[in-house]
Amino acid sequence: MDVTGGNGQPRPDENHPAEHPPAPPTPNPAHDPEHESAPDRHHPDQGHPDNPGPGDPADRTEHEHRSLAHAGIARTDPPPERPKEPGGGILMGRPFGVPVYVAPSWFLVAALITWVFGGQLDRVLPELGALRYLVSLFFAVAFYASVLVHELAHTIAALRFKLPVRRIQLQFFGGVSEIEKEAETPGREFVLAFVGPLLSLVLAGLFYLALKPVEPGTVPGVLLAGLMISNLIVAIFNLLPGLPLDGGRMLRAVVWKITGRPMTGTVAAAWVGRALAVSVLIGLPLLNQSGTLGGDRDVSGMDTVTDALLAAILAAIIWTGAGNSLRMARLREHLPDLRARTLTRRAVPVQSDTPLSEGLRRANAAGARALVVVDTDGNPLSLVREAAIVGVPEHRRPWVPVSELAQDLTAGMRVSAELSGEELLDTLRATPATEYLVVENTGEIYGVLSAADVEKAFVKAMARPT
Question: 0.70 exceeded by the pTM?
Answer without folding.
Answer: no
